[in-house]
Design a protein that fits this description.
Elements: E1 6-13, H1 20-30, H2 36-48, H3 64-69, E2 76-80, E3 108-114, H4 122-129, E4 134-140, H5 145-161, E5 165-172, H6 181-198, E6 206-209, H7 235-240, H8 248-251, E7 256-265, E8 269-278, E9 280-282, E10 286-288, E11 295-303, E12 306-308, E13 310-312, E14 316-322
Parallel strand pairs: 1-3, 1-4, 4-5, 5-6
Antiparallel strand pairs: 2-3, 7-8, 8-14, 9-13, 10-11, 11-12, 11-14
Helix pairs in contact: 4-5, 5-6
């Protein structure tokens, strides 16, 4: 039976067209979470829908309508294992599931929650924000900061409301400003000033310049931004510094999980996907479905495709249930 490691839920917010989905998709490709066949299929979709350079964004933009219009309109969650956030200077350790030690010899899984940036989809973004333990803000280096300012504020305020700590600002599309350190520093100072106005702490926030499309500074330093070496780090360096939140107090509470997706799987049945907000869920457990009020029985629990004995502590799980029809379950 798979034993889940400690984990962190990272919600990624930012203005429309800031490059969130492209950055996340390319990161997942570099960490071997997406096979080449899938990327090739996404490239063909880009040609079909006349959306060039969107293949990495399609990793998180799952629905057909999102592919056609080229934007995220729902929040999506994907996870990576500790073995995939290998620090370049670390080596593989011997273990059955081939996990690796990251900095401080901690082992963790990371779930990324990609949120839409358009104002009309703010409700969907909030659904994703409330699930996060920490947050990354993604902003575009090539767009005028004043044009992004209102949208940045709209993304930062919910973080404050839901007490989600902003731990990093990812400045992307650096290639469009010729990897300029001056441009990056100007953007950094403007963000710091804006955070102070909103009332967010800036002391522990890290800034990382990247190019999500080209893959610069995602897993290794880019030769195009030599000025970042030993100063700002890469995204993988950032992941290695994440602190696992304390969750033990949640385990003693009644089981609660927000349904994020409902899957109908052949030879399995109905699987409810979501993050365990409180309590513990395991097989052969009777749970109540809201708002229908029906009681259903759990058959099995898994995380990231692996069966587990129990799900708890805000881990992303899939729960196979019986005892109700698909119409009795509601997302949200």
């Amino acid at each position: 039976m798979f034993i889940p490691k400690d984990h962190v839920n990272v919600v990624v917010v930012g203005p429309f067209q800031s490059g969130k989905s492209t950055f996340l998709g390319h990161l997942f490709v570099d960490l071997k979470q997406v096979d080449q066949r899938t990327i090739d299929r996404y490239k063909r979709d880009c040609i079909e829908f006349l959306k060039p350079n969107c293949e990495y964004a399609y990793v998180f933009e799952k629905t057909k309508i999102e592919h056609e219009i080229g934007l995220t309109n729902i929040q999506a969650t994907k996870g990576i294992f500790a073995k995939d956030i290998l620090h370049p200077k670390e080596e593989l350790c011997n273990s059955e599931i081939q996990q690796v030690s990251i900095k401080k010899y901690e082992k963790m899984n990371v779930s990324f929650i990609d949120t839409p940036g358009r104002k009309k989809y703010i409700k969907n973004a909030i659904r994703g924000i409330h699930k996060g333990d920490v947050a990354f803000l993604v902003i575009c280096a090539s767009l005028n900061f004043e044009d992004q300012k209102e949208s940045i504020i709209e993304n930062l305020i919910p973080l404050k409301i839901f007490l989600v700590e902003l731990v990093a600002v990812i400045v992307t599309k650096m290639g469009e400003v010729k990897y300029s350190e001056v441009c990056f520093e100007e953007t950094k100072q403007k963000i710091i000033e804006l955070m102070k106005i909103i009332g967010l702490s800036t002391e522990s926030v890290r800034f990382v310049p990247i190019d999500g499309l080209e893959g610069d500074n995602l897993t290794v330093y880019s030769d195009k931004m030599a000025w970042t070496v030993n100063k700002y780090g890469t995204v993988v360096d950032l992941l290695n510094t994440l602190i696992i939140p304390e969750r033990n107090q949640l385990d003693t509470q009644p089981f609660g999980m927000t349904i994020e997706n409902i899957c109908k799987i052949r030879n399995v049945g109905t699987v409810l996907v979501g993050i365990v907000e409180s309590g513990v869920v395991h097989a052969n457990q009777i749970v109540t479905v809201s708002p229908s009020g029906l009681s259903v029985k759990t058959k099995s629990v898994e995380t990231m495709g692996n069966p587990i004995l129990e799900g708890k502590g805000r881990v992303l799980v899939g729960v196979n249930v019986v005892g109700a029809t698909d119409f009795d379950y509601k997302i949200g």
